[in-house]
């Protein structure tokens, strides 16, 4: 607790190093930082990030829940269940650090494990959720412990006869190449990428590759990309937690045609008009959360891609009587001031 005697520099160093294996210690001493998982009896699992600051050792720990989350429990769109059960394709989850990407991926793997048979292979850095064998055999490999690197593991993964391959994170072109290749060869590949929304994710993927490869990349993505799912966690109106806003891009024939032609800037407009197919933009998802009374007007604008678009949706809904809650109607008052014009 905070009232206990602070650790000395030596004590802090000994404590941090005691949580690492020999390979992790070598990595830490070489790179001055190391990310890994810790599992302790009685305390649970943690995601650890050890680092140096001011020439002293420090550590950040994030608690990992022991229970595998469920798709229903996360309150994400039903289309996530369909994506979990699809036979082949590349599904990429995007969002900021701490937006719940890994949690949703774990729920998808859990759903697939419960509702099908086959072999699920995960390559993670570090492993965050432990999956027991269910209908599927689940093989989980941690970079730095079970395999030397993502590249080594991915290069040999098809020899392990997986039906589903989960790559913890796409950080470079080679990993992206593997993800596309897995989808091309009839596998379902799940992964994460750091981007704010689906359009930015497409830009990041494109920027992994030199311009001379873009034409082939657009064709490959049009044929093999299944979906891009983006997430943001927003504080709830009652202040007791956070709720998730989810943007969904699905590779329909029209979306695939736009991708093949390199017209990715037009994708968002198609998403707005395709809710009946399971697609939605962040602004539409955020409006739904506001309409349901889960988030405040201020948080809706703060977390939107376009404040003006969300403001307009709320205004039109209020004028048409869709927002029956008086608190929600009152929230429109800042629209006549400078609130939200940041």
Description:
The protein is α/β, with parallel strands linked by helices. It folds into two domains: 9-64, Beta-Lactamase (2-Layer Sandwich); 71-287, P-loop containing nucleotide triphosphate hydrolases (Rossmann fold, 3-Layer(aba) Sandwich). 39% of the residues lie in helices and 23% in strands. It contains 15 helices and ten strands. The chain has helices at 9-18, 22-31, 71-74, 79-85, 101-115, 150-156, 173-184, 198-207, 214-224, 253-260, 267-272, 282-291, 297-302, 307-319, 326-330, and strands at residues 33-40, 44-53, 56-64, 89-94, 118-124, 136-142, 164-167, 188-193, 225-235, 242-250. Strands 6-5-7-8-4-9-10 form a seven-stranded mixed beta sheet, sandwiched between helices. Helix 4 crosses helix 5 (101-115) and helix 12 (282-291) packs across helix 14 (307-319). The protein is globular. The relative contact order is 0.09. Residues 335-342 have low confidence and may be disordered.
Mean of all residue-level pLDDT scores: 92
Which stretches of 5+ consecutive residues score pLDDT under 50?
A: 335-342
Named at the architecture level, the CATH assignment of the largest domain is: 3-Layer(aba) Sandwich
Order of helices and strands: HHEEEHHEHEEHEHEHHEEHHHHHH
Give Rg in angstroms. 22 Å
Write down the overall geometry.
globular
Helix content: 25-40%
- Give the termini distance in whole angstroms: 40 Å
Strand content: 15-25%
Number of distinct helices? 15
Q: What do we call the CATH topology of the largest domain? A: Rossmann fold
Number of domains: 2
- The side-by-side strand order for the widest beta sheet comes to 6-5-7-8-4-9-10
Largest sheet: 7 strands, mixed
* Main CATH class of the largest domain: Alpha Beta
CATH superfamily of the largest domain: P-loop containing nucleotide triphosphate hydrolases
């Amino acid at each position: 607790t905070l009232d206990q005697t602070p650790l000395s520099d030596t004590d802090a160093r000994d404590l941090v190093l005691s949580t690492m294996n020999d390979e992790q210690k070598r990595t830490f001493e070489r790179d001055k930082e190391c990310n890994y998982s810790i599992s302790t009896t009685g305390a649970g699992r943690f995601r650890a990030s050890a680092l140096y600051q001011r020439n002293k050792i420090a550590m950040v720990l994030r608690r990992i829940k022991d229970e595998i989350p469920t798709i229903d429990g996360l309150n994400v769109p039903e289309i996530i269940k369909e994506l979990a059960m699809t036979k082949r394709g590349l599904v990429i989850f995007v969002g900021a650090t701490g937006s719940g990407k890994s949690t949703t991926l774990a729920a998808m793997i859990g759903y697939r494990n419960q509702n099908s048979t086959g072999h699920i292979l995960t390559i993670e850095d570090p492993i965050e959720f432990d999956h027991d064998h269910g209908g599927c055999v689940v093989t989980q490999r941690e970079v730095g412990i079970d395999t030397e690197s993502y590249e080594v593991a991915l290069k040999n993964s098809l020899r392990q006869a997986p039906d589903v391959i989960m790559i913890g994170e796409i950080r470079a072109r080679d990993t992206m190449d593997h993800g596309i290749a897995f989808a091309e060869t009839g596998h379902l590949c799940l992964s994460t990428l750091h981007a704010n929304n689906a359009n930015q994710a497409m830009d990041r993927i494109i920027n992994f590759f030199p311009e001379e490869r873009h034409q082939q990349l657009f064709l490959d993505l049009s044929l093999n990309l299944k979906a891009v799912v983006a997430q943001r966690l927003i504080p709830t109106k009652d202040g007791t937690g956070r709720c998730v806003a989810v943007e969904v891009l699905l590779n329909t024939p029209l979306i695939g045609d736009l991708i093949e032609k390199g017209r990715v800037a037009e994708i968002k407009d198609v998403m707005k008009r395709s809710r009946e197919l399971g697609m939605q933009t962040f602004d539409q998802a955020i409006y739904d959360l506001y309409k349901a009374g889960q988030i405040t007007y201020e948080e809706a604008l703060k977390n939107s891609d376009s404040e003006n678009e969300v403001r307009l949706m709320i205004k039109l809904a209020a004028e048409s009587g869709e927002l029956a809650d008086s608190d929600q109607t009152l929230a429109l008052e800042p629209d006549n001031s400078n609130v939200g014009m940041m």
